[in-house]
Hints:
Blueprint: H1 11-15, E1 23-25, H2 28-37, E2 41-46, H3 51-61, H4 64-73, E3 75-80, H5 85-99, E4 106-110, E5 116-120, H6 134-147, H7 149-167, H8 180-191, H9 208-221, H10 224-239, E6 253-254, E7 262-263, E8 266-267, H11 268-285, H12 288-304, E9 315-316, E10 319-320, E11 323-324, H13 332-339, H14 341-350, E12 371-372, E13 375-376, H15 380-384, H16 386-401, E14 408-409, E15 412-413, H17 414-430, H18 434-450, E16 452-454, E17 457-463, E18 466-470, H19 473-490, H20 494-509, H21 543-558, H22 561-580, H23 586-596, E19 600-607, H24 617-629, E20 636-643, H25 658-661, E21 672-677, E22 680-681, E23 685-686, H26 688-701
Parallel strand pairs: 1-3, 2-3, 19-20
Antiparallel strand pairs: 2-4, 4-5, 6-7, 8-9, 9-14, 10-11, 12-13, 15-17, 16-17, 17-18, 19-21, 21-22, 21-23
Amino acid sequence: MPNRLIHETSPYLRQHAHNPVDWYPWGEEALARAACENHPIFLSIGYAACHWCHVMERESFENEEIAAYLNQHFVCIKVDREELPAVDALYMEAVQVITGHGGWPLSVFLTPQLQPFYGGTYWPPRSRDGLPGFTDVLRAVVDAWEKRRDQALEQAEKMAVLLEDLSQSVPHAAGSRDSAVELAERTLLRGFDATHGGFSPAPKFPHPSLLRFLMLRGRCCGSVQAERMAAVTLDAMAAGRIYDHLGGGFHRYSTDPVWLVPHFEKMLYDNATLARTYLDAFRLFQRPFHAKVVRETLDYLLRDMRHPSGGFFASEDADSEGEEGKFYLWTPHEVRESLGPALGELFCRAYDLTPGGNFEGKSIPNRLRYLEDGRFSPPAEDEENADALNEARRRLLDVRSARVRPARDEKILLGWNALTVDALCWAGIVLGEDRYAHAAADCAEFLLAAFAAGEGRLCRTWSEGLARLPAVLEDYAALTVAMVSLYETQGDERRIDEATRWLEVILSDFRDPATGVFFQTVPEHPNLLVRRLDFFDSPTPSGTALAVEALLRLGHLTGNSRYLEAADQALESLSGWMRQSPIGLGHALLARQLRDLPWTEWVFLVPEVDTAPGLEKAAFAETWRQRLLRHFLPPSVIASRRIDARGQAIGPTSPRLKPIFAGRDARQEMITLYRCQGFQCAEPIQGEQAVAAAVDRWAAQNG
């Protein structure tokens, strides 16, 4: 007999629908029962791709004896952290305070008033390996609740006060002659692994926004050490096994210091933000290797993670057939059997497949042996055998595709999809790949239609034709950023109207007037103990940092100084955290560095009649845009408008872009470029050849 979770749309919750535990989803029914019966709440939080969540389910939640004890003494609530990030973030902070660490599965004991009084992460059913048994933990909690309830309630009350203080305050930035970004760079350098990249011994996480910040520091501030930290880390990740060398895309993180053994789950947000980061690397370093990583990562998303609606699924599991990583492992015998002796031997040599293996007796394909002084330097043999190796990878991918695949979490999350739109639209123009541009536009149309909740509100998750649950700041801010990126790369001015619509909601309903930082939730978000400020990356860019990015870009595009002032206040409030904990504020650091640099406005007027011989009008309209965006630009905004022979705009226009186009028209019916930096504007440049030459000249001067 299934429990209540059978009616949920979350694949993670449905995985627990046949547990003997009497699970409730988070909501009024469970909380009312806890209040009525004065029972403590056992809150279990996880997600579909989480390996140890599956382990705890098999060991404890499917155990009849443990389930009976839980049902007798607790109201048991199961939460998908990806659906309810505000619930997850709050109680993760509580467990980190209680135990000094966090992770999933997250296991928390609450009063009926939602105040936490004890918690942890994974517990085995019986004590082992220095961990207390889940059975012992449950009995201790019940004993405390029944015999020392006043103490438990007092502890819970203190924890609630502490959580409110931690969640709604930002530290004052101590005075220093050096800026927050300079101090952050020095802090990162102290923790940097100069041999293997990354900023910790193990486990190692990608930190895409941090790498983008370091590339910006290198490009625009002349920091050789920042550029090297980014370059070494990017090359090592793409050479290591955190990257899927057959199917493309990145696994969640590396369990070792050398990026060899990953935690095998694949998350949409990692692949979206890393594709965007490697695209910046390609623009900065101009290495085809980085463009290859972008293409393979986005091709993975289009091939394996795309819903027919145009949206993208949340994740793929770490496990298949009950074993972590089984889908991705090989032996030399399997490779030679699939490819034949000669090609099989070539692949094994190039991708480090050995008889002894490098993970539990099998091998994870990788290219770490070709890192020299931290940079990826494949041997000449690879160039000579490039076609053969590509054929080997294609054939092995076909063989692997016939295996039992890891489970896929097929819910569609607004914020994660918006990050994907952002990566796709930039890749489409920079790499000249129309399929990415079309996928970005299709996904954006789906998001705008499917996630609207009315009255200036959005939903967070969509599954089986139904959008539900309130969106959080990440969703609104990522969607706003995606709309701006779509306009800058594709020129549809309706995107600016959508972007400003949601940015105004962010400013009116999420902003803390005291600090300028943004709350994770709207005031009416249901069933929350504390309304938290959202400024730490986790591991998606923080909602506040995404909002600041949108404020900066729209402020420069629309000339709205109120947006720039709001960005300034938030960044100033976060400067203390940037200095203290730069790894946790990568996107805020990126936004701060963008704000500290002079911005350039590129304004293009493209007459319909101005076409080059042999080029279609639509194709020509993109040559100048691609030529510009292939460069790694300092802080810039790009406004473009197609006009007819009378100088009238072709297609919908946005009134919000009126200031940037004011007084600007196409000269002599030729493409015309207006470029301004700060308060100085250059003379307009006219004609295809002159515009192209000016773009290349400017890029060379600023390279």
